[in-house]
Inverse folding.
C-alpha cells in the first residue's frame, strides 16, 4: 500500500508541476504567474519592499505568423521564451507566457533603474537572436516592446493596478515605434 501511495503522490506532484507550465514555451503559464504575483504581493506589502513587472510583446507577431507560418511562429515563441529565461538572474524572478505572443516577468524586491536595465538587456537579447522577420516594418529581425512598472514601498495599491501600469507602458512603447522599453 505504501508503494501505491508514494506513486500517487509523485503523480500528483507531476500533474501540479505541469499545470503551471505553458506547454508550447516551457515557461510558467498565466495562471501560475497570477498565483505567484498574489503571493509575492502579500510579501512585498508585509516586508515593505518593491515588486516589479515587465510586460512584453513580440512586435508584429501576426505578420510573422502570416508570412513565416505557424510552425515558425511556434518556434519563435520558444526561442523568445528561452532568451527571456536566460535574461533574468535570480531564482525568485518568474517568466511567464501571458497570452499569445505576450510574456510577463515578475521581479520581487526589484525596482527603479535595475528593472529598466533588465528590460533593456532582454530587449537586446531578443534582437541578438536575429530571427528573420520577413514582414516587419520595425526591423528585419524579430523584436519586442516592453512595459515596466514598479510598486514601490508605500505604493502597493493592487496587483491589478501594477499590471495595468505595465500594460500602459507597453502601449506607449508600441506607439513610440516599438523595439523599446517604456516605464510607468
Amino acid at each position: 500500500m505504501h508503494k501505491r501511495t508514494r506513486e500517487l503522490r509523485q503523480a500528483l506532484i507531476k500533474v501540479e508541476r505541469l499545470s503551471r507550465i505553458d506547454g508550447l514555451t516551457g515557461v510558467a503559464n498565466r495562471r501560475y504567474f497570477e498565483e505567484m504575483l498574489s503571493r509575492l504581493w502579500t510579501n512585498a506589502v508585509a516586508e515593505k519592499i518593491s515588486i516589479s513587472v515587465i510586460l512584453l510583446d513580440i512586435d508584429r507577431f501576426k505578420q510573422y505568423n502570416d508570412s513565416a507560418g505557424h510552425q515558425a511562429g511556434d518556434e519563435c515563441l520558444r526561442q523568445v521564451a528561452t532568451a527571456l529565461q536566460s535574461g533574468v538572474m535570480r531564482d525568485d524572478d518568474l517568466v511567464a507566457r501571458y497570452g499569445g505572443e505576450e510574456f510577463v516577468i515578475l521581479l520581487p524586491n526589484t525596482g527603479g533603474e535595475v528593472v529598466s536595465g533588465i528590460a533593456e538587456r532582454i530587449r537586446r537579447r531578443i534582437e541578438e537572436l536575429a530571427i528573420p522577420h520577413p514582414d516587419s516594418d520595425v526591423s528585419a529581425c524579430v523584436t519586442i516592446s516592453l512595459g515596466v512598472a514598479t510598486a514601490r514601498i508605500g505604493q502597493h495599491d493592487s496587483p491589478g493596478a501594477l499590471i495595468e501600469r505595465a500594460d500602459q507602458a507597453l502601449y506607449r512603447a508600441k506607439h513610440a515605434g516599438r523595439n523599446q522599453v517604456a516605464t510607468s
DSSP finds six helices and five strands in the chain. The mean pLDDT is 90.
